[in-house]
Amino acid sequence: MPFELEPVLPPFLSPLAGLVDQGGPVVMLLLGLSIIAVALIAAKVLQFSLLGVGRHGGARKALKLWLDGRQQEAQLAAAASRSIASDIMRNLAKGSAQTGVDTDLFKEDVERICVQKINRLRAYLRPLDMIAQTAPLIGLLGTVLGMIEAFQAMQGAGAAVDPSVLAGGIWVALLTTAVGLAVAIPVSAVVGWFDSRIESEQSEMEALVTAFFTGAVAEASSFTRYQTLDVSSGGKGGGADVKPAFLRIHTSEKIDFNGVPVSKDEMSGRFAGLRDGENRVIAIWSGPQANVQDVVDVMSAARQNGLNTVLVTGN
């Protein structure tokens, strides 16, 4: 069969015809798997490029603008970037703009979207992994079959065995194992690279969603995520006078809203009143005995009502 195809093949494919002629159907099968692997790899590279895998700058910029209270600019920044992380940021911004949405349900739905996007990135990785695992085994099978054939020929020759003929049969049998490894090694390396990119994308999405809901309070001390006001200086910060509503969290049980004690259950009503008025900024101060989770809950409730939250310093 190869001798019939070789005259019509391009010159650069002649070695492949010789390889198939020597290795037989096992090598032909392995070459077919290698062609499938190359096609799948090309499709995955194109998919990653079109979906913007690894491009996180736009989403990070949009998140920073959102946490600074500049929602319109954040939405524009997310829309200007074409990537999976920016898509998640757009979904977060749209969902947060809706009033009356339960925060837990909203977060679960965003996580559902993230899982769907990760599963989409993992598409066709399983066939590549199967090729990487089965190619050496197929090559080994060809070697075993070739060795059996060589020793059968040796048995039939009896005492007139030609060692050179036996050696030739053995190296031809080992050829299938070499071809199997040549197919499996690069495919396995590419699958590992794809997995690392997907894990990096998943970590970025998890960090993005977590920072959006928590307000990245752990990074507040760096003053890069929030506008910070100094209460003792009369509420001036960022070079402009700001007159926000003040909420002081002393402890989980002691919270003051504009100097009036309130409970956690009453805060949503107070926030709704601010949303309908001209003042849409609320300054949050937390005392040394305040729980971080209390701050996170307050900030999430404020953003759910369309308010801008600002951390404050001073007494």
Describe the protein in words.
The chain has 315 residues and is of the alpha/beta class. The chain has three domains: 2-50 and 123-214, no CATH class; 52-121, no CATH class; 220-313, Nucleotidyltransferase, domain 5. Helices cover 65% and strands 10% of the residues. It has eleven helices and eight strands. The strands form two sheets. A six-stranded mixed sheet has the order 1-8-7-4-5-6. Strands 2-3 form a two-stranded antiparallel ribbon. α3 packs antiparallel against α8, α3 packs parallel to α9 and α4 (57-67) packs antiparallel against α5. The longest helix has 52 residues, at 163-214. The radius of gyration is 32 Å and the shape is rod-shaped. The N and C termini lie far apart (89 Å). Mean pLDDT is 75; it is low at 1-6 and 220-242.
List keywords for this structure.
about 325 residues; alpha/beta; Nucleotidyltransferase, domain 5; 3 domains; two-stranded antiparallel sheet; 11 helices; about 65% helix; disordered N terminus
Helix content: 55-70%
Q: First CA to last CA: what distance?
A: 89 Å
Helix segment count?
11
Class per helix and strand makeup: alpha/beta
User: What's the structural domain tally?
Assistant: 3
Stretches with pLDDT under 50, minimum 5 residues: 1-6, 220-242
Shape: rod-shaped
Give helix and strand order, one letter per element, not per position: HHHHHHHHHEEEEEEHEHE
Strand content: 5-15%
Rg, Å, rounded: 32 Å
